[in-house]
Automatic annotation (TrEMBL):
Pfam families: AP_endonuc_2. Keywords: DNA damage, DNA repair, Endonuclease, Hydrolase, Metal-binding, Nuclease, Zinc. One of its GO terms (molecular function) is DNA binding. Residues 415-425 have a biased composition (Basic residues). SUPFAM superfamilies: Xylose isomerase-like. This is Probable endonuclease 4 isoform X2. It comes from the Eukaryota. Residues 375-390 have a biased composition (Basic and acidic residues). Residues 1-25, 365-425 are annotated as: Disordered. The keyword Transcription does not apply.
Amino acid sequence: MMSNKSVKRREGLKPANDSSTSGKEKDTFMALPALATYPSLGPGPSAVPKTGRKYVGAHISAAGGIHNVFNNARAINAKSFAMFMRSQRQWIAKPFTDDHVVRYKEQSKSFASHLILPHGSYLMNVGSSKPDLLQKSRDLLVEELGRCHQLGIPHFNFHPGSCVGGSSRADCCRTIAESINIAHSKVPDVIVVLENMCKQGNTIGGDFHELRLIIELVDDRTRVGVCLDTCHAHNAGYDLSTEDGFNSMISDFEKIIGFQFLRGLHINDSKNEAGAHVDRHECIGKGHIGIEGMKRIMNCDLFNDLPLVLETPYTDDAGYAKEILMLEGLINSNNCEVKPTAVKGKRGRKKKEVQKVKEENLMEVNVPKGKRKRSSIDETKELRQKKSESCENNAKNPVKQEPVEVSEAKSTAQRGKKRKFTKAN
Ligand SMILES: [Zn+2]
């Protein structure tokens, strides 16, 4: 017999603000009754190595050659990362040079490959009902998967697509699945990773049922996974600033898709309120998910061992390094209020001097450990080390290899270089 509690949870299968079941879409799978059962989609892709640790990183630049991603990851102390494999705004791109591939492979030996989650081009819509666009998108998906295969990268993440041109949402999901099946038949091994979206307009993937339908229709479900974007989930209707909203997302994901399919997260705060259906990322702690919401995310064991990739607005490397450290500092911090820019023990200091210290703290996160000044972040971390192993130590003992040598990291800013960054969603 079903308890009141489980009935309530099942009724919550469809998040609030769900507008996707109205009108012409009633003929689709989304008209599922609230109490429908969801048979397992199967074991999913093979499990990633288990360490019980969090691997926080960011979307980084591959400008100048794909091999540069490792230096760029090191510059911000990233323990995982995403990048574009090619220009994401052009249909035609040059293949990798042999030299860059050799250099990439050499450097990749020191980084666990499942913690690298490349992001697909924004041009691609493998669910399009327009034949020309669909064919170009399918060709591009094959090309991108081919690049991953060439480099030995096991995953490729992209936005599922959108149903422009008059097709129903369900038909669009079927087209996406067919595109994946075609790509699978042309490129071996690489796992396609579908990203959840905001329920904005015609985009597919804001409702977990849509991702489920796509996965159901993929012939080889060991080669399909999901990347959970926190900003997108918040905007789709799961209020991640609250415990109920977070639990609702977890419960729905488990029932509708299954955590065996989760291959990574995009950790973003949101400029907009829950259910706004707008894809605008905010820096960690500055948006509507907030630090409390981020604490829940960073302390969820279901997110262990996966790439946790920042796609927050980029300012400079130091900004990303600070956000990574901030997120790592939230682990096991249930009783600890984290204010990374607060300066403790500076009583009597003039306002300007305090501001200067704040700025110094921000820039020092990449300075070799023995040389940097103490910041409030250090103090908070030391407190936590008494309770548990710190994230920094975690990174020194990854299951496969050392992802990045934290102590040698220097920011690009410190090296006096400026590099171009392109935002990912
Ligand atoms: Zn994302």
